[in-house]
Amino acid sequence: MPSWSRRIGLALGAFAFAAAQASAQAVLSPEQMRDLAGQAVLQGQAGLAFDLTGALIGRDDTDLDAHLIRSRAARNLGRNEDALTHARRAWALAEDQNARFAAALAMAQALSSSGRRTAAQLWLRRAVHIAPDDGLKQRAAEDFQYVRRQNPWSTALRFSIAPSSNINNGSRNETSELFGLPFEFALEGEARALSGVEISTGLSTRYRLVNNDRKRTDLLFGMSHRTYVLSEDAQDIAPDAEGSDFATSSVFVGLQEDYALPGGRARLGWNARFGRTWYAGDPLMTYTRIGANYRRVAGDNGMLSLSVNREDQVGEGTRLDATIWSGQLGYGMSLASGNTLSVSTSFVTSESDADYLDYTQRAISARYGLAKPIGPAQLEFGLTLSEKNHDRSNLTADGRNERSIQATVTAALPEMDFYGFIPTITLNAERTNANIDLYETENFGIQLGIRSAF
User: What is the DSSP annotation of 198-260?
Assistant: First the structure.
């Protein structure tokens, strides 16, 4: 129930408006009418605010504040098209930074109320970009997160450029012992590590079919493409090779569901995907994947996760069929300092029509993120150790064994924020030792990318 002071204020506002109408605006000046309309919309008298601003706009169609207040009032009255009309007019009239920020928020609110939440998110990114201070920027970012939670559509675009010393996962050696023979074979062309630049793009989108306290059901779609530009050194090593020879493309559709378990601290879900992959422009395989996952809040700041997946691959051309099982156990937490730490371990086993392609792989990973920037950069460090074993090999009688280590440092640059997107720079170093020289690799690279700040 409204307080007595609020009731009295609303009654006085209504009385003042009636008096203003009766005296043909002789009592209230435009400034007083504007102030009264603003108070009315804040106190829940949207109809009064709508009528007052109508009189103001009729007097002067360039009254920016009147358009902003009328847009808010129309939205509260459920008149969403009117809300959009006046928000657009306010944006057209806005000249300084504060006015443009207010108009962008009005556009986002009107679009969200009319069900156009993806467009509302775009306007909120614009509001973040033009916010006159950090407080208003944070407010717009929080509004964005709220609208995103309400939006059944969620779309992510990815783009990165990554110079690399080994784009084809070729051997770091120039010679290799093969077939147990007591001499070495020279490695040439594409068997050697080729340097160049990786260009990667991708899109993934989700449509939420069901969203309630107990259950979430999502329809998924994704596509990606990765191609390369060879360096001059790589062209000298493999003169007949082109970057597109190593290009990969993929597309998938999927469905996923998860359920809240009793107690509200855990969720159990499943997912299924069907996809297709191309290599060098030719079909490589189709696959179906089904998996289950479990997530549980651990303590005050931690999250425990477990997932298991099975993927059935059907090869095309010379590609053989394979069945791949994988599992991952992970734990992430926020520390008292605000820094973040996550660790995970994974296991993969693959079986195919050729036993020399069968393998098992184990890995352990850790990531550590700093809450406070160092200079202009917010840093995250990563380390992964893995071991891959083939019981049989078509090159030796001893099978094939590999051990890899990968280290990454990612720097996000929040001061270069553009519409809520910030650039990232990732330094990557990876080395694989193997009992077969052909599979010993080394890769040093830098990846330039973009990610959302919120």
Answer: EEEEEEEEEEEEEESSSEEEEEEEEEEEEEEEE-HHHHHHSTT--GGGG-EEEEEEEEEEEEE
Angle at 300 (CA atoms; ends 294, 303), nearest 5 degrees: 25
SS3 400: strand
Residue 397: predicted pLDDT = 77
Name residues whose C-beta falls within 8 Å of residue 243's C-beta, 6 or more positions apart in sequence. 167, 196, 227, 228, 229, 230
**pLDDT score recorded for residue 394:** 79
One-letter amino acid identity for 242?
Answer: E
Convert the pLDDT of each residue in 208-232 to its tens digit.
999 999 999 999 999 999 999 999 9
Residue 353, helix vs strand vs coil: coil
Of 256, 136, 157, nearest to 200 by C-alpha is: 157
Q: Which two tokens stand for residue 275?
A: 């996809």
pTM of the model: 0.84
Asked if the model's pLDDT at residue 276 lies above 70, the reply is yes
Question: What Rg value do the Cα atoms of the chain yield, rounded?
Answer: 30
Identity of the amino acid at 395: L
